[in-house]
Amino acid sequence: MNKQKLKDINEADEPYKRPKIVVMCGSSRYVDIMAVCEWLIQRDELAITMGLNLLPSWYCQGKIPDHLAENEGCAKEMDELHLRKIDIADEIFVVNFRDYIGESTSREIKYAQDKGKKIRWYNCDEIGATVQSLIARLAAEGDKKEERRRMRR
Length: 153
Known about the structure:
By secondary structure, the chain is an alpha/beta fold. The protein is 54% helix and 12% strand. It has a four-stranded parallel beta sheet, with helices on both faces. Helix 4 (75-88) runs parallel beside helix 5.
């Protein structure tokens, strides 16, 4: 499937001779969910994704705060940069895990709407369904391991 998508991109007429660009939007409290969504969008859709910065734990001496930009005094600049990413994107993907949408994400959604960008929602998208099934499978496997551990006692 990916080979065909890549072939379609390469054979397309300009300006369609590029992959779509997707900006990831959502709360940093669900960065793990967002990272998986971003990977699946890249892998399955051959899209360029933007919006997520995964940093190693040593960057903040073991604990990266939920709001790193605020912690480092550059939240306003990073928020503005995120809007510029939306400007060049074809669509945004909103990770509204557990139906949570924070203040910053609400602003980004409104901005994307005002710019006429396509908006995809985690809880209504095939990518979100895939992630949810992965989470459920891992939880079930964890439950089975716990049950086997209890039975050995």
